[in-house]
Amino acid sequence: MSVQLAIAVTQLISRRRPTLVSLTGIALGVAFFLAVSSLMRGSERDFIKRLIDNSPHITVSDEYRHAQKQPVRERWPEGAIEVLRVKPLTEVRGIRGHGQKLAFIESLPGLRAAPVLVGSVVLTFAGRIEGVTLNGIIPEKMKGVSTIEEKLIHGSLEALATNPNGIAIGDGLAKKFGLEMGSVVNVSSPAGEVRTLKVTGIFHTGNVNYDDSQTFVLLKRAQGLLDRANRINRLILQLDDPYAAREAAAVIERRIGYKSLSWQESAEDLMSVLLVRNLIMYSVVAAILVVASFGIYNTISTIVMEKIQDIAILKSMGFHARDIRRIFLAEGLILGALGSLIGVTLGIGLMWLLAQVQIKPPGATEIVHLPIYWGWEQYLMAAGFALASAAGAAYLPARKAGQVQPVTILRGMA
User: Fold this and answer.
1) Structural domain range at position 195
2) Cβ atoms within 10 A of the Cβ of 344, count?
3) Among 34, 128, 159, 383, whose CB has the most other CB atoms within 10 angstroms?
4) C-alpha dist (Å) from residue 34 to 277, 289, 335, 385
């Protein structure tokens, strides 16, 4: 142990009560930093997980991000053109050449895709009429890109795959119509097609709007009902790494031309809210550590005042100003390191206690636990900020000690 470090340790031990108070302040600051950080980041990750699990990571639709220019505008971009009473040709909407585009997307690593045809239909049962959204799917491909299989409380996607006239509905819609497994409903589309379908699955996602309005049938059946033979209007994608969705969507859009929307882009306002919330959270917990560092400042300042004569003697023996500064900086870092170690241990205990808390939100049917994030980087962040605060609090007293003039002090002692 160097002489400066030995002196620093001796001075801290000699002042046990102030040292203990400073350690307690740093330890509590680190512990609360970890408790708040783990709770906030855990809730953020839980929210994002629910968001990305219940929706595709990327959605490719039969639209273009920017409207295509008319040929006349391409030919005379600077001309004054007005075309009246021209009615656009009626076309069957959908993603053109979706087979080749799907093959390209599935060739990308870490990605799964499924074709979907989405349209609006009218559900009729026992005199009740309700407009719902019809999703035409291929069950095998849907399993890889959606959690709908996990949300089925009755039936399965396999049952839907084996029944050309099957339909899966939400439990909210089932309660509204009084339907159960095996019930038969009439479905009519804007194209004038009417089909009688049998309920082969009932799902519950917890999202009331989704459970009340979404239905699933086989892709071929949806194409027949909506009069869109061999057409789809959605490609839904899931990635192994959801956070790479924005970059993957840009690559896909450049290659196939159709609008590719990542979950980050579609929830951009929510992501901005989470960013602001994190800034507020880290500002609050950082302020706790800054306040705790004043205890270190007070302790070291007191030591400097009490040991002013000892400092003068050390400097007269050949200690440089930088050596004196190192002694008191070492004291601050020792307090910061020990406080961080104790605080991390205490923080882990607080996090464990928070993880045991059970809450039943109003209207919910299931008890939930507080989401806690256990990532190692938050421990490093808490300890690092505590050490930085301790070093900052120790710097001013250490600088003052280094500026002591031994001649003036020693003359005053004579």
Assistant:
1) 64-69+92-258
2) 21
3) 34
4) 16, 11, 18, 12
Nearest to 328 by CA among 403, 409, 401, 386: 401
The model's confidence at residue 88, banded by pLDDT at 50, 70 and 90, is: low
Same domain, 136 and 99: yes
176, 153, 156, 152: which is closest to 166 by C-alpha?
156
More reliable by pLDDT, 350 or 414: 350
- Does residue 170 sit in the same domain as residue 299? no
Instruction: Tell me if 384 is assigned to some domain.
Output: yes
Residue 349 lies in a domain: yes
CA 183/CA 200 separation, integer angstroms: 8
Residues 6 or more apart whose Cβ sits within 8 Å of residue 343: 26, 27, 28, 29, 30, 31, 33, 34, 382, 383, 386
Instruction: State both tokens at 28.
Output: 């509590």
Final residue belonging to a domain, choices 204, 225, 258:
258
CA-nearest of 279, 274, 261 to 49 is 274
At 60, which helix (H) or strand (E)? Answer: strand 58-61
Task: Report d(CA 68, CA 88) in Å as an integer.
Answer: 14
Q: Look at residues 231, 258, 285 and tell me which one is the last residue of a structural domain.
A: 258
Indicate whether 207 and 283 sit together in one domain: no
What's the total number of domains in the chain?
2
Q: Is 341 within a domain?
A: yes
Same domain, 104 and 15: no
Structure tokens at 189: 């589309």
Shared-domain flag, residues 20 and 116: no
**pLDDT > 70: what percent of the chain?**
90
Q: Which residues on neighbouring strands pair with residue 337, listed in sequence order?
A: none
Q: pLDDT tens digits, residue range 62-74?
A: 888 776 666 666 7
User: What mean pLDDT do residues 222-247 have?
Assistant: 89
Please report whether residue 86 resides in a domain.
Answer: no
Measured at the CA of 116, the angle between CA 111 and CA 120, to 5 degrees, comes to 145
User: Locate tokens 């789809």: which residue?
Assistant: 232
Average pLDDT, the chain: 83
Q: What is the pLDDT of residues 103-134, one digit of tens each?
A: 999 899 989 999 999 999 999 988 888 999 99
